[in-house]
Every structure is written in C-alpha cells, then in structure tokens.
Design brief:
Length: about 240
Amino acid sequence: MRLSSPIYRLKRKAKILARDNDIRLYEALNQIATKEGFKDWSHLASNYSEATPAKKVMKQLVSGDMVLIGARPGHGKTLLGLELIALAEESNRAGYVFTLDYNESDVWDRFEKLGFAPKRFNRPVVVDTSDNICADYVIERLSKSSDDALVVIDYLQLLDQRRSNPPVDEQVRALKKHATDSGAIVVMISQIDRAFELSSSGLPSIDDIRMPNPVDLSLFNKRCFVHDGEVRIEMAA
C-alpha cells in the first residue's frame, strides 16, 4: 500500500489536526492512519518503519546489558530512552520507566509525542516517579514480575541525592548484578558535563559524563551518546 505522503509529512498533518480540533496527538495520528487505510498509527508505522536511532540501538541490546545514554539537555536522551521502552514489547519485554526528574504526566506526554499512548501498548508500561527510586527500589519492583524487563532509569546522577541511599557506584553494581542474573536490560540516562559545550567534539564521549560522585563507568558495557540528532553507540573495551 502506497502512502499519500511520506511519514514525516503525515506526522505534521496529525499535529495540525490535533491543534485545530483540540484532540490528543495520538488520536490525530490514528485518524491520519485510518485515512491511509490502516487500523491505527502503530499499524501504519509497523508497515513503514523508519530506521530510527532507537531501532538501531534496540537491535544491539541483549539480555544482561547495562547501557548508558548521555547527552546535554535538549538533545533527546530522554526521548531515546522512552522510544526504547516503546519498542520493548517487540522484543517480548516489559517496559519500566523510573524517573527522578519528571512527573508521570510529563512521561506520558513525551510518549504521545513519539506517537505512542497507553492503549498503544499490548502489555502495560510501568512509569514510576517515586522519590524513593534507587537500585534496591528498582530491583524490588522488578522482582515482582516474571517478565523479562527493559528498564530506563532517569537519571544516573540523581540516584544518590538522598543521603539514605547507598553511593551511586554501589547502586550501579547492584543493578549490573541484577541485569546479569535476571536477563534484564538496564538503560541509565546520564548528564554530560557542561564543559562539553566548549569543546570542538561533535559528540560527547565517556570522558564527558558528569561525575559529581565516583562511578565505575566500565560497568556499562554499551554506551550511547546523542548530540544534534546524531547518535553513536559504543561497546566497552
């Protein structure tokens, strides 16, 4: 089936439709998809999937991975993490978002911008915004499910902001052990030091990770850096 316009133009039409008719973006996307002959937007997208950065990253993830996503503010690290969650069920995984930075409404609004809504997911996605988020809290929640998990934690530098929590290095080690033992994939979003903005580098590197407290970054066997729409995936040596 041939689309009447490229996907990016259809998305633009949906944004205008949502604005003009005061409806949610996912509803507008579904209306556009129906006019194109599909049952909903996810049906259209699955037939005309673009090689998005998240899909490229997802293809390289395997059970037990510890993944670091680093970028400066506004360069898409959180959206990349959420798109990985949206793709989790395609790998028969349950998606978990643990965030100390956003409220639940913010997270679902960002899912909607990606063209996903709660009813889009065949299995529930857990969005947890508790102030108690730390490694032990995450592991306890995951232990209550028998499903393989893909976990996004937002973000690394906030895990030990509460004095009652263990040092962040200790927490990353605990999450690494859980991923190895359970087969989960753990993705941690990370800040990049602001000094990067003064460098001539095109993309951040492991040396640009903001480190207010010590962390053994070799615990992350895969690293993903984002800047100005470009994405680079690295394997740890």
